Automatic annotation (TrEMBL):
It comes from Marasmius oreades (fairy-ring Marasmius). CDD domains: crotonase-like. Pfam families: ECH_1. GO terms for molecular function: delta(3)-delta(2)-enoyl-CoA isomerase activity. GO terms for biological process: fatty acid beta-oxidation. Signal peptide: none annotated. Belongs to the enoyl-CoA hydratase/isomerase family. One of its GO terms (cellular component) is peroxisome. This is ClpP/crotonase. Transmembrane segments: none annotated.
Amino acid sequence: MTRPSYPLSLPAENPLITLTHPKKTLWIIELHNGQDARLTPELIDGGLKPALDAVERSWRDGWRRLQQTKDQDGDAPGDDGKGALIIVGRRDQDKFFSNGLDLTRVVNNPNFFPITYNPLLQRILTFPIPTIAAINGHCFAGGFMLSLACDYRVMVDGSKRRAWLCMNEISFGSNWPTSFGRLLRSRFGSGQLQRKIALEGHRFTPPEALEAGMIDHIVAGGTKEVLQKAEEVAAEWEGNARGGVWGLIKGEIYRDVLEGMMLDVRTPTPISDDAAAKARL
């Protein structure tokens, strides 16, 4: 199979994400659907999913080389088998990581959660290398859930430009899919925190989110600085991918979440089934 040349912009006819490979052990996905990186079926099915495939293929090439070069003691020099992935909002601004789902494209689409969005969350939750969300601005709703699927979260501290983490569906009367509730409960065991996020729609400042354990680091500055910190986190944990079990262990940790995400109801019709096939084929 032909390996991608970088940068890789997807979908090819109307790029909404860009995948770069700045060093052997690191891949970066930039979301750039408009200024606020709204998540659409095209961005997910035509952008994020094939980008994740490209990253995994490239990492597995190195991991297989690692298996071939190990000596009798199990040691192997070099970077083969190491790897980490960063997801960041549009790089030329410091206002948004993602403003969430494009509801006009989602509300009447019975395929969106069971066929498009939930499989994306499942893929990231079980991805075989460490994943870091570089939250370079506001992170709302579906964008917040995307960040929660990642292993680590690094966020701007809000000193340069205001930034919030928020699940705001309560404010405009949009129900949650099963996947949102399962993922939230897997990350935060506190009922009070769950209530504050889901039912009160609280807009968490970065310091509040750090104190609540919603993110791992906050960084002064903007996109450049948050990416630098995300790369430090990637470098710290990329070696743990060498054992080949990072994703396998996560599959056990999040088994209930992954199974629960399959409970979102889909009532197919010939039209919706054809739309799902079109996205898949």
